[in-house]
Amino acid sequence: MSFKKVILFIHRWLGFITGLVVFIVSITGCIFCFQDEIQDAVHSWRKVVPVERPYLEPSVLKSIALNKYPAATANYMYYLGINRPASVIANVPQKGFTYIYLNPYTGQVLHTEGIKDNFFTVIEDIHLYLLLPDKIGSLVVGISVILFVLIMITGIILWWPKRKSDRKRGFTIKWNGRWRRVNYDLHNVLGFYATSIVIILAITGLGVDFNWMDKGIYKVANLGQTYPNETRIFKSDSLFKSAIKDKPVVDRVFLTAERQSPRAQMFLIGEDNTASGVINITAYRQSLHFGNSDFFVFDKYSGKLMQYLPNSKKSPGMKLNDLNYDIHVGQALGLFGKIIAFLASLICASLPITGFIIWLGKKKKPKAAKAVAHRRLHKQLQHK
Questions:
Q1: β-pair partners for 233
Q2: Strand order in 96-102's β-sheet?
């Protein structure tokens, strides 16, 4: 068996194995790319009128949310931006995690939503786990994505024109050809153009699914160098007690984070209820974007600042990991990047279909040729 036949065998059978998963993951990726824009257009509660006064304090927003669900607990809060609502994530008995959206200036409850009630959350769950249990689903999707990268590489090897005179023709789709030729070109030409983008989307997607990929990106970007301050685990220092008692600790530390990161548009506050006893605050430079952020760790009981890690002091690996989501959905390059990610995902969804049609056509060709030969022989015998 020749080298090219071996590559074709690998390409074809990996396509059969992963085709359905690749189609589902790609289609859901297309839909999810513009989820913020679609939700902003559909839901009026995602925008608020900004006013010239500070946000309501985290303890106040949390109190309003827990008054609505008295038996719930809430450890995470978002301030999504000056013209966007704040969100308290509450764990409600018999309902599960629920987002409570509030006006950050008035405290008015704008919307409540179970984590599984949002259409795009379901789309994301299908994209990441195929609605299977998380560990099983992530493994199936992750392995399929790895195999799909191999499919794209073997596809390039099979497609690459041998002669220079064939290359120009190989880079374009012959729209005026027969439908089988158009299908063949759609599979090969679009696959070629999408390959580099698909590999980037695959790597960032694997960074979400697999911890080893996340760590691998970190190490490669840092050229193997270690940064202990970025992996250090902090615990409450019970010996340090603050004399300031006029405000809840979470309100005081949030005010510190706002002052330290005055250009931040979005804040995530996480109150750790475990033995570590810390409050983590991430200040994001741009609303609904997760790269370019400053990170704070405070003692939950005293308000002591235990770590301040601004974006400018982060290692290249940590900056790249922070950008993982923004790169994966294309928003790292703005609207243009989202369009590119959308088109690349759409091409990925089409490849299993066009590839299957090519294989089906080749399977039918020998039978059709035999039928033609049989008819010719039959006519010859009749003439005799």
A1: none
A2: 109-114, 96-102, 86-92, 73-79, 266-271, 278-284, 293-299, 305-309
Q: Which residue has the tokens 């499919």?
A: 151
What is the value of pTM for the model shown? 0.86
- The confidence score (pLDDT) of residue 295 equals 97
- Sign of the torsion angle spanned by Cα atoms 3, 4, 7, 13: negative
44: DSSP letter:
G
The structural domains of the chain, with segments of one domain joined by +, span 1-47+120-202+343-384, 48-119
Question: In terms of C-beta density within 10 A (0-12 exposed, 13-18 middle, 19 or more buried), how is residue 5 classed?
Answer: exposed
Q: What's the pLDDT tens digit per position in 18-69? A: 999 999 999 999 999 999 999 999 999 999 999 989 999 999 999 999 999 9
Query: Is residue 368 within 8 Å of 63, Cβ to Cβ?
Result: no
The predicted structure's pLDDT at residue 177: 86
Q: Which amino acid is at 280?
A: N
What is the distance between the alpha carbons of residues 19 and 13, in angstroms, rounded to a whole number? 10
Name the nearest CA neighbour of 221 among 199, 195, 203, 247: 203
Burial class (CB in 10 A: 0-12, 13-18, 19+), 144: buried
Q: Tell me if 69 sits within 8 A of 98, measured CB to CB.
A: yes
Instruction: Report H helices in the chain.
Output: 3-33, 35-42, 58-68, 119-129, 134-159, 164-170, 179-209, 211-221, 228-231, 249-260, 316-322, 324-328, 334-383
Is the CA virtual torsion 105, 110, 114, 120 positive or negative? negative
Closest CA to 284 of 107, 84, 148: 84
CA distance 224 to 222: 5
One-character DSSP codes across 270-339? EE--STT-EEEEEEESSTT--SSEEEEEEETTT--EEEEE-GGGS-HHHHHHHTHHHHHTSGGGHHHHHH
pLDDT below 50 — which residues of the chain?
381
Beta-carbon contacts of 297 under 8 Å, excluding residues fewer than 6 positions away, are 234, 278, 279, 280, 305, 306, 307
CA distances, 257 to each of 24, 146, 263, 287 (Å): 41, 40, 11, 16
Q: How far apart are CA 53 and CA 105, in angstroms?
A: 7
Predicted confidence at residue 43, as pLDDT, reads: 96
